[in-house]
Each structure stands twice: as C-alpha cells, then as structure tokens.
C-alpha cells in the first residue's frame, strides 16, 4: 500500500510533540507590582515569552493592562479577586458582573487558567471573609459556566497556617481544629466536584531555624524521619507538602490536586537576618525548580509534578521590609538577580545583551498616573467621584465613551486619576489619592481609549466649571506620529 506522506509527517509531528510534552517542564512566577520602577506589562510579557521558559504567571488582581499585555503570548495567567471583594461576590449577580468585566473581555486571547478567590483568607481570621469564601468560589464558578467559559478553574490560596500546630512529622498533618470539617471539607468537596486544585503557599523560609537551614535549602542533611510511615524527609518543602496532603487525607480528599501558589526565598534582608542572602535564595529556588520539575514528587505523593509559582518575578521596592523587597528573580531592568535555569539558552538579559534583541527602552519623558495594584475598588470609586466632581471631564468613561470598556472600577479610576493628574499639573502629590495612585512611564492607553500624555494640556472652559480633553483626533494623530517616528527611526 502506498504511504501517504502527509500522514507520515503528521504522525512524526505528533510523536515528537507528545514526547516533548512528556519531558518538558515549566515553572510559573508570581507577578507582583508593588513598585514604582517596573517595566510596562507589554515588555514583561515579551521578555517572559522570548527570553525565559516561564509559561504561567499569577497576578494579585485582575489588572486589565497586564491581561491585555499577555494576549497571544501563550502564557497562562491566574488572576486574583481582592480579599475585600470576596463578600460581595458570594451572590451570583455580582459574580456574573465580575466575570463579565474581568474575564470575558480578555479570555481566551489571553489564556486565563485560574481565578484565585482572595489570598490566604483563613489566615486573616476574619469570620465574615471566611464565611463568604466558599459561596464566592461557587458563585464565580457558576458565573463562568453561565458565560460558557469551561476552562477557567476557581480556587483560593492558603498559607500553612491552616495546619494544626502539631503537624510534624508530615504524617500527623491535620487542619486546624474547628476548621477541618466546617471550612476545609466543603472547600475540598468543591474542588473535587469542579476538578480544580487546592492551592497552598508553602514557605520553608518561615519555618527554618539555624539547625534546619540545610534541610530548608535542599542541601545535604541527615533528614527528618517519620516513625509512622517509615519515610525519611531530606527537605522541608516535601515535609510541608506532605503535611498538607495528610490533612486532606484525614478529611477524605487526598484525591484533589495540589498547586503551589507561592513559595520563595529573599535574596537580601536586614542585619538580623544572616541567612537571608543571595546564596541561599539561589539554593532554595534553584533546587526547587529542579525538584518540582523532576517528576519525583514527595514521599507521600511519589511521581507527581506540581504546578508551582515562585514568589516573585521582580524585586518590588514599595514593600515594607528589606526581605519583602528582595524576593524577585529579576531586577526591574529585566536582568536576573540570580539564575535558576529559567532563562532560555542560559542567556541573561543584562547590560551586555544584544540591544537589537532586547525590549525597547521605556520613554521616561512621559508620565501617567494609575491606581496601585493593592488599591481596593471602594477607594478607587471614591477617587472617581472626587475627580469627576472636581471639574475633570469624565465623559470618556461614561457609557458610550471610548474608555467605558472594560466597565470596571479599576479601569475607570485609572483614566480619571490620570486625567486629574494631567489637568492639575503632573506633580507627584497630584497622583497620591490617599496612597492609592502611582506614577508610571507606561502608556496605559488602549484601543480607542487614549490617555492624556504629559505636556498635553487639559483646557478649562471660560466659566471654569469643566475640564475638556484636547480634540480626540488631535491626540490620535499625535500619538500615531509618535509611534511612526519610533518605528521608522
């Protein structure tokens, strides 16, 4: 029989593809933005796609600028619902509105693979937040189904504070008394029914002592023996993972998948933190990448590869302490703080990198004012109300305006806060808004929505009762000419 060459080539392709998928691995990162010196999201997305093996990121909000930037990159994004927004999303109409505003405008062009509902809610000990957590997860899951979105999972990250104090050795791991059957069994039942993962944030960094440093860093050590199982643990990460697994098993849900939503080690600390240094950060994160991608699993979960997100992508200079500011794998200029084998071909993007292949430099002559990533919707709504009552033209963010979509508080606040900043003088204090604004050199304009540029004056009417933007056509022509000048330079 004559062989069809197309079928032969197709067979070879699939053979290669699946053999590659079987051996390939990837590690995700938490992309935090509590900083005022980070590159624009579009530059970050290009860098991750072209220069690293990282194929998934987790963000701590649903920032539309970031979601737009990752469109078409193939990099999966986990978005986060702020803790303060969890109670309101426990009702289906609010959840549907949230999905309509934060998921549907971007997915699937931007691959949104998960929604993290809050962050370490149980650790807050806020009874209202804890009570509304599962209802919000269920409502968001239902909202996704009603919108015919079936490939976005719903979960919530937990700190290891969910475990009882006597959860060592790993076989004795159990959820905190009073939370096991009331809180975690129902959450795990939701995960089982929806085939979504249980997210945890294991941090050996918070659990080590001087005696257990090597144990925490994956360095050679005598290990910790579990008398119940007869298993020996040679690293704290495995012990923490198996303690969570044991807790899940005790309530009958050891079949639910586990995702490592956060883990990391800072590369610098205060003088009283001698073990917080570059060498130990490299040891922990470098060995972690090798360990979780090996497929070896843990003593109680052998032969498993865990989806893992390192904290964090960048050093974030607005965090409160030295160690918190130095969790990043990369500096804001995209050069690595240290190499954990996520750069393609082991090539670091540094001062000696090929300029032709490096992302274009940011134009620092222009500045805009946008919301901080940790600003709540409540605070941002107050900013909108204030700006629009101060004589600034808010028509662009009203229904039918070029900046109305996406119809979210954060997106509207971003436009309004910048309009105020430009209208009343681009000084830093005009972008403070009660510590909810931050100045950026990344143009937040998108599609038909053009944000005023620094130097583009907003004109007041003769009566002084309103502020109007320059003619939209003039702005469009100006921006187009600017873009063309860069392209043909």
From TrEMBL:
<keyword id="KW-1015">Disulfide bond</keyword>
<protein>
    <recommendedName>
        <fullName>glucan endo-1,3-beta-D-glucosidase</fullName>
        <ecNumber>3.2.1.39</ecNumber>
    </recommendedName>
</protein>
<dbReference type="InterPro" id="IPR044965">
    <property type="entry name" value="Glyco_hydro_17_plant"/>
</dbReference>
<comment type="similarity">
    <text>Belongs to the glycosyl hydrolase 17 family.</text>
</comment>
<feature type="signal peptide">
    <location>
        <begin position="1"/>
        <end position="24"/>
    </location>
</feature>
<keyword id="KW-0325">Glycoprotein</keyword>
<keyword id="KW-0378">Hydrolase</keyword>
<dbReference type="GO" id="GO:0005975">
    <property type="term" value="P:carbohydrate metabolic process"/>
</dbReference>
<keyword id="KW-0336">GPI-anchor</keyword>
<dbReference type="GO" id="GO:0098552">
    <property type="term" value="C:side of membrane"/>
</dbReference>
<keyword id="KW-0449">Lipoprotein</keyword>
<keyword id="KW-0472">Membrane</keyword>
<dbReference type="GO" id="GO:0042973">
    <property type="term" value="F:glucan endo-1,3-beta-D-glucosidase activity"/>
</dbReference>
<dbReference type="GO" id="GO:0005886">
    <property type="term" value="C:plasma membrane"/>
</dbReference>
<keyword id="KW-0732">Signal</keyword>
<dbReference type="InterPro" id="IPR012946">
    <property type="entry name" value="X8"/>
</dbReference>
<keyword id="KW-0326">Glycosidase</keyword>
<dbReference type="GO" id="GO:0006952">
    <property type="term" value="P:defense response"/>
</dbReference>
<dbReference type="InterPro" id="IPR000490">
    <property type="entry name" value="Glyco_hydro_17"/>
</dbReference>
<feature type="domain" description="X8">
    <location>
        <begin position="367"/>
        <end position="451"/>
    </location>
</feature>
<dbReference type="Pfam" id="PF00332">
    <property type="entry name" value="Glyco_hydro_17"/>
</dbReference>
<dbReference type="Pfam" id="PF07983">
    <property type="entry name" value="X8"/>
</dbReference>
<dbReference type="InterPro" id="IPR017853">
    <property type="entry name" value="GH"/>
</dbReference>
<keyword id="KW-0611">Plant defense</keyword>
